[in-house]
Amino acid sequence: MDAWIDLARGPLLRISLTIMVLGLAYRLAVGLGHAITSWRRAGDPNVPVRDVVRATLGWMVPRRLLRSRPLYSLASLVFHLGVILLPLFLAGHLELVSRWVPGFWPVLPAAVADWITIVALAGLAVVLGGRLVVRQARSLTRVSDIAILILLLVLVGSGLLAAHPAWAPANARLLLLLHALAGNLVLVLMPLSKIAHCVLYPITQLLFQLGWHFPAETGRHVAIALGKEEEPV
Amino acid sequence: MTFECSYYLEPVDTTDLPRRFLDAFAAILQHSSYPMILEAASRVTSRCGRCTSTCPVFQASGDPRDIPCHRSELLLRIYRRYFTFSGTLKARLGVGHELDEAAINTLAEEVYRCTACRRCKLECPMGIDHGLITHLARWVLAEVGIVPKALVVATREQLEGKTHNTSAIPEAAMRDTCEFLEEDCADEHGLAITFPIDQQGAEYVFFPAVSDYLLEPDTLTGNAAVMTATGGSWTIGSRYFDGINYGLFYSDRMLDRIVSMEAEEVRRLGAKKILIGECGHASRSAKFFIRTFNGPDAPQVVNFMEYTYQAWRDGKLELKADVITERVTYHDPCNIARTGWIIEQPREVLRHICTDFVDMTPKGRENYCCGGGGGTVSIDEIRPFRTKVGGAAKAEQIRRTGATLLVAPCANCKKQLAEVCEDHGLDHVKVVGFHDLVLLAMVAPEFMRLDSAEAEPAEASTEAVEECAVTSSARTS
Fold first, then answer.
1. How far is the alpha carbon of B258 from chain A, nearest alpha carbon, in Å?
2. DSSP for B87-122, written as a single string
3. Cβ contact A69–B67 (<8 Å)
4. Rounded-to-integer distance, Cα B402 and Cα B97, Å
5. Given pLDDT bands bounded at 50, 70 and 90, which one contains residue B388?
6. Which of A193, B40, B85, B448 has its CB 3.0 to 4.6 Å from that of B444, i.e. a possible disulfide?
């Protein structure tokens, strides 16, 4: 068992982290590349930057987020906080990458980390429940949406139980292995799934704003490509 | 199968339709920046359904087809399948779907249930602009001949017909209307106004929604009165005088051609700026796309309400306070309010000239669409859907204000709101233009007053407002 855990926390983790970093860097580079190309091709390159910045930052203010569907939004907020704070500031996680962590890096006190974990779990459960119960959300949901939420539940839940063997219904080492494997899977999936929004979020408002800044010649080129230059309306 | 939608279509050539659809989609993707937004939407969409809380169509219908995310997914699914590596790979492995005529028919039906109000974008944390994706879907459909007949017939007349406008108004009829309005204003208001036509070197060339010449005499009279009173340098172009641009609703190719016709008319007349009348989409299509298609030296675009507001603020236009005593509310046309362009200017004027101005909630950037946006107002055959579903939220907003005068500074919104009021038992509400009321409040300078009939605005207001109501009911008949 320990050998498997070491494998998951060692070589597998390094591979997963590499895939995540390179994959997310690729996603961000593609997004930025699209943005630059679109801006250079735009007939009118004057983008209302203030609006874009305001819209991007606006969603980082919880009050804005909680204005509609408050329960779902609150659950989403706390689970997002959990899955950001726990990997970055939990002592157990930092140990795994200690050689790259600077000395000033803050560490979450254990009790605070536990509460964040419990609240994040509750948030995940509500979001998953909302997906399955609320009619309009269910009609939009795909298998991958559910699978990612379940994977995150397993990841966070197994981590909590592995850290508190007294609460664990199963062997804590087994739970730790499950946690490590789930963690690796999430890292690999980050650039391959919608979790890529973790790096794309800062530029999505810009991309959709740029989307309205059409290249001047698009219509003419499309007409030529489709053989419609002389075709009446 | 028969290709059918709830709106009328010209005969659709269904021969090899999926392949032709994909060819059109490919051509558009190759020559535009749309791959950027489809790629971004595919990567970040979480389909959380948050947009359901803001879409007035879904709120009224409760139909999953009206969820903005769902509608976008119809196009994104085709994009991912045919234009991404993973989609091609899945198809090779035998797990990809094949585009068929039924899927195209579904897309064609659903993209015209959207009013393109873009309210959903406000509630998407990822900033996904479902309005833009719908806009693209409509263009791809248009390239295979799937466009509501009402839109394509009007655009054909505008671009290739004898009259070059969407209402097929001959130039002579436009001139007659202007003359009639000049005479009518003299008789009714005792004011001398002029509609200059083909004046070379004017500052502004005026492009109202051309339907105003048929349906909105009070708005046009108000426009001319403001220009006359302020000494504005303006003209109507006889070759091209229509601000309407249905290209915004179904084809970037048409959007380009129509905007460029406005720019061409301004150049022909040696003018400097484009002055758009009371019309939301006409204003947006000119303001936000004229530089796109005509370069950085394209004429500046001004909405008439901006002009009037500025003239009033600068003291060039005097408006009597508290002239309108009925309860008044204001509808924000999505195309000028969603970006924050024109929100407070008309309100400031209305608060000054009305004794009882009340706002709707929500308003401004977050306003509810009238329900006829995205060109749907022109599709008469879907009126029950437009008014009962699309206009339900707006009707409730209007009812809550208790207003009897509803100012809607947009030709499309006026028509739609008159029908919404009719279909929701709001018969006591009169839909009027912004300049209809400005005309009633205007303190005309001496040179405009005719000796035969000097009317005091305050005395004339009640009767004149009643006359506005006649226009309001004419829109729906």
1. 12
2. HHHHHHTT------HHHHHHHHHHHTS-----HHHH
3. no
4. 52
5. very high
6. B448
Q: For residue A30, list chain B residues with Cβ-Cβ distance below 8 A.
A: 39
What pLDDT does B458 receive?
43
For residue B349, which of B325, B331, B322, B327 has the smallest C-alpha distance? B322
Beta strands in B313-380 (DSSP E): 324-330, 354-357
**Per-residue tokens: A149:** 């939420």
Q: What's the rounded Cα separation, in Å, for the pair B143 and B164?
A: 22
What does CATH list as the number for A2-38+69-212?
Answer: 1.20.950.20
Please report where in the chains the tokens 């087809």 appear, as a residue: B65
Which range is most confident: A165-169, B35-39, B464-468? B35-39
**Span B453-469, pLDDT tens digits:** 444 444 444 555 565 54
CB contact under 8 A, B291 and A43: yes
The answer to whether the CB of B24 falls within 8 A of the CB of A201 is no
Cβ count within 10 A of residue B341: 17
Query: Which one of A36, A44, A133, A228 would you mutate to disrupt binding with B, by most B Cβ within 10 Å of its Cβ?
Result: A44
Q: Is the pLDDT of residue B18 over 70?
A: yes
Q: What order of strands is seen across the sheet that includes strand B234-235?
A: B234-235, B204-207, B273-276, B300-303
Chain A residues inside the 8 Å CB shell of B34:
211
pTM assigned to the model: 0.94
pLDDT digit string, tens, across residues B329-380: 999 999 999 999 999 999 999 999 999 999 999 999 999 999 999 999 999 9
